[in-house]
Amino acid sequence: MRICFVGDSFVNGTGDETALGWVGRVCALAYAHGFPITSYNLGIRRNTSADILERWENECSLRLPAGCDNRVVLSCGVNDSMLEDGALRVAPEQSRANVHAILRAASRYPLLMVGPPPMPEDAQNEQISALSRAFADEAAALGVPFIELFSPLVADAAYKQEVASNDGAHPRSSGYTKIANIIASSPNWWFHALL
Amino acid sequence: MRICFVGDSFVNGTGDETALGWVGRVCALAYAHGFPITSYNLGIRRNTSADILERWENECSLRLPAGCDNRVVLSCGVNDSMLEDGALRVAPEQSRANVHAILRAASRYPLLMVGPPPMPEDAQNEQISALSRAFADEAAALGVPFIELFSPLVADAAYKQEVASNDGAHPRSSGYTKIANIIASSPNWWFHALL
Predict the structure, then answer these.
(1) Which of A38, A80, A147, B71 could link A95 by a cystine bridge, Cβ 3.0 to 4.6 Å?
(2) How far apart are the C-alpha atoms of B132 and B150, rounded to whole Å?
(3) Taking CA B158 as the corner, what is the angle to CA B157 and CA B159, rounded to the nearest 5 degrees?
(4) Is pLDDT of B110 > 80?
């Protein structure tokens, strides 16, 4: 079983001093539950949904050979919501269209989408929250399971404090552990303990 | 600081139930030594030196933006030495030429090469050993530091036993820990404890 995790710095695990990130943690948990998956971490710092739309197919096709149980997990959005020269890096309608295009084209694989996490600033969080809901709607319309990070994390003062005291964007290992636990405990996640 | 680790399943960490592989372990060690690096694991299962020659530049250029301290680590060779339909997947002279081409083109980045690890079979190990020496020669000719894995691991009965009792090619976490320790303790490695 081979899984490509496609996304941004949060997928990459930037800032995690253990070098696991949430991707490493959910994969180690899957292993422990009896699923020895091969994972490919395709998170790139500063990538927007537009950047991912450009590259995901080429990078995934090199890693997901015919004959394997191949899957794709997509997560993005925070970089779309960044202001650059006074404008959003990607307009919300375009973010939504990009995610729709990726999910539709990737539908030949079992797919999962993980929503964007919150940032420390309330103004950006309004953007992120709206994007997360829009991505959830797009995923639902295409029958793709969606795991939300925004609501549980925006209510978590310790998570936001860790991000603020780190680099202002990324958590460290305890925040990534929280993200991994949200994903691994979701009924939409693929790999639960075999009872 | 951003590092692309380009290579095969051993770079990917295939078989490691902790999901760290040697790449995750050397990055966590670097973090602990005061180097908060962003790492990109670009190891792909079954990739030969020819496969890597095709893709490394495109994938690295998307991850190593101007203005960062960008580095590349290359490791390959075991898949080149595999027999398929009675022939080596890549002939030794071609493997050497591929590695030369990658190292020369990547010389705009600080570079490091890690040699291929041994396999359980003596016949394949003759090929791997010769490739490791050839890659070391190519690296030396281009002034690229090289860290050998073959000699210390081929003499390690516990390593070979772990590989043989796993899938016949990849170690599990204790083997990857050994590889990480060989790399992290090499004078050619970049990130040692600040004294």
Answers:
(1) A80
(2) 7
(3) 90
(4) yes
Enter the pTM of the model: 0.97
Q: Do B17 and A2 touch (CB under 8 A)?
A: no
Within 8 A by CB and 6+ apart from B21, the residues are B10, B11, B12, B13, B14, B41, B43, B176
Rounded CA separation A125/A144 (Å): 24
Q: Which CATH number fits domain B2-194: 3.40.50.300, 3.40.50.720, 3.40.50.9100, 3.40.50.1110?
A: 3.40.50.1110
Measured between CA atoms, how close is A19 to chain B, in angstroms? Answer: 5
Query: Chain A residues within 8 A (CB-CB) of chain B?
Result: 2, 9, 12, 14-15, 17-20, 23-25, 27-28, 31-32, 36, 38-41, 44-46, 51, 55, 58-59, 62-63, 65
- β-pair type (B83-84, B87-88): antiparallel
* Contact flag B31-A17 (C-beta cutoff 8 Å): yes
For A8-62, what is each residue's pLDDT tens digit? 999 999 999 999 999 999 999 999 999 999 999 999 999 999 999 999 999 999 9
Residues of B in contact with A62 (CB under 8 A): 44, 51, 55
Q: What is the pLDDT of residues B15-56, one digit of tens each?
A: 999 999 999 999 999 999 999 999 999 999 999 999 999 999
Domain boundaries, chain A: 2-194
Q: pLDDT category, B193, cuts 50, 70, 90?
A: confident
